[in-house]
Amino acid sequence: MAKRVNDPLEYSSDAIRHMNLSIKRLRRRGDPTYQQVLDKLIRCCDEDGFNCGSLGCRFCRERAQASFAWSVSRGWRKKRELYSWTLVPADGWVEYDKIDEFDLKAFVRRHQAKLKRILPSGTRIAGGVDFSLNVFENGDRWWQVHLHFLVATDFDCDTEKLLRKRYPTDSDLAISTPVVRKVILVGCVFTNAAYCLKAYYTKRSIFIADPAKGGSGNRTGEGQTLPANADELLQLALSKYRVTDALFLIGLKRMRSSDPANIRLRRTGGTTCSSSE
Question: Which of 17, 131, 181, 216 has its CA 20 to 30 A from that of 45?
Fold first, then answer.
């Protein structure tokens, strides 16, 4: 199944391969419950001008990712540096077979409210929700839903302390690094913004380092390809959401568009992000 002609975005070879596999898996499944999902994916691949806008569609995720990254990089192009944050909350731990029961919209609302109680007034955040399959010692497996976002201003010490207090480590849930902060240069904004709104999701392997070899504590292997069954399970769970439901915004909102994967941001006060800085 080839990429649509006249499409403004050149989809990655991985996206094309993933869409083809997704359609083949759904056809083999033969479950009428997911017939509508299958029909939308086929139309998204074959029909010019049709974009299903589903979070379960790799093409629409890739289009939304590029649009989001462009909007953020344009909006904050005059900043000398930005701050990248990753938050791994305990309520993002989801049993492997229950990912379909996870409420993405409630998760976003919950953590927007949580951060608004901590952050200084006027703080603007642009980011998204990420899904990772965590596997411990090639045995226990679960989903860890977490957040990536960019901020134009650094948090003061008190704010950062509160943030780290609200997102603590939890050894029972294998959350050893719940808060990660990085400084990024403006020239790297597009790449980092694209990372915040993922087009694809990965597996993270966790294992205990061998003391006999000089290791201690947990070690992880990140960025691994999802196994076929896990990928299908996640895709079907996400197919009930719009691609924009994965956005995590504070002080910003998406401007209306007839294209479900077109993401232009503006301040909640009304100014477009691309002209606000």
Answer: 131
